[in-house]
Amino acid sequence: MRRDTTSPVDGPAGTPDNTATEADRDALWRVLRARRDHRHFRPDPVPPEILKRLLGVFDVAPSVGLSQPWQVTVVTRPELKEAVYASFAGVRQEERERFAGGRRERYDALKLDGIREAPVGLLVSFLPPQEATLGTTSMSAALEYSVVSAITLLWLAATAEGLGLGWVSLVRPAELRRLLDLPDRAQPLAYLCLGYPALELWEPLLQTVGWDTRKPLEVEWK
Ligand SMILES: Cc1cc2nc3c(=O)[nH]c(=O)nc-3n(C[C@H](O)[C@H](O)[C@H](O)COP(=O)(O)O)c2cc1C
């Protein structure tokens, strides 16, 4: 496994510009609406400069106490993807038992990963800080939330690049830690499949196939 010890990012060019135009706002909403969880990928590689730009998201993402408690492992070797897939397949087998009757049949028909097809896998791990972190006294989970919020930004940035990203949570963290030779303190949090999408999705795939539907937000005003 190759390890980059320096940041893969050159840093954003120029000074921050916070003067969003109407076109910027529209573009952002286009990306927000276009973002989908993808499980079907074309074999085309992800150009290295685009991957590098995407990983730059971690250098602009928020994190509690500026802790940046994450580690990213880029997975491209087919044998490693196969091993991650084996972990997924085991969890999927276990999860199907939680559904009964027709629901279980429908579960079996779902495509829930693109681990082998996606040209790139990104394992994002939570690295608990070794020192006290500002902002985590009453809510230690804020550290994990920080990792998740960075992933969300990555998801949007990937969409803006015309790439598809699929989040796979049906994996066993300890297995992934061993397979990818991560330090003991790394807690694998998300395995992300990245590549050019093979399917255009206008709504969540789980909605298209009739598993569930998106519900509107209910807001309480007090
Ligand atoms: C934390 C998290 C874990 C997820 N894990 C999986 C997964 O293991 N397999 C899968 O097919 N989709 C997974 N998804 C994708 C969701 O199913 C998807 O976001 C949801 O159906 C809405 O679809 P959309 O993202 O296209 O809007 C996950 C999403 C999140 C946020």
From TrEMBL:
<protein>
    <submittedName>
        <fullName>5,6-dimethylbenzimidazole synthase</fullName>
        <ecNumber>1.13.11.79</ecNumber>
    </submittedName>
</protein>
<dbReference type="InterPro" id="IPR050627">
    <property type="entry name" value="Nitroreductase/BluB"/>
</dbReference>
<keyword id="KW-0285">Flavoprotein</keyword>
<keyword id="KW-0288">FMN</keyword>
<keyword id="KW-0560">Oxidoreductase</keyword>
<dbReference type="Pfam" id="PF00881">
    <property type="entry name" value="Nitroreductase"/>
</dbReference>
<dbReference type="InterPro" id="IPR000415">
    <property type="entry name" value="Nitroreductase-like"/>
</dbReference>
<dbReference type="InterPro" id="IPR012825">
    <property type="entry name" value="BluB"/>
</dbReference>
<dbReference type="GO" id="GO:0102919">
    <property type="term" value="F:5,6-dimethylbenzimidazole synthase activity"/>
</dbReference>
<feature type="region of interest" description="Disordered">
    <location>
        <begin position="1"/>
        <end position="24"/>
    </location>
</feature>
<feature type="domain" description="Nitroreductase">
    <location>
        <begin position="32"/>
        <end position="196"/>
    </location>
</feature>
<dbReference type="InterPro" id="IPR029479">
    <property type="entry name" value="Nitroreductase"/>
</dbReference>
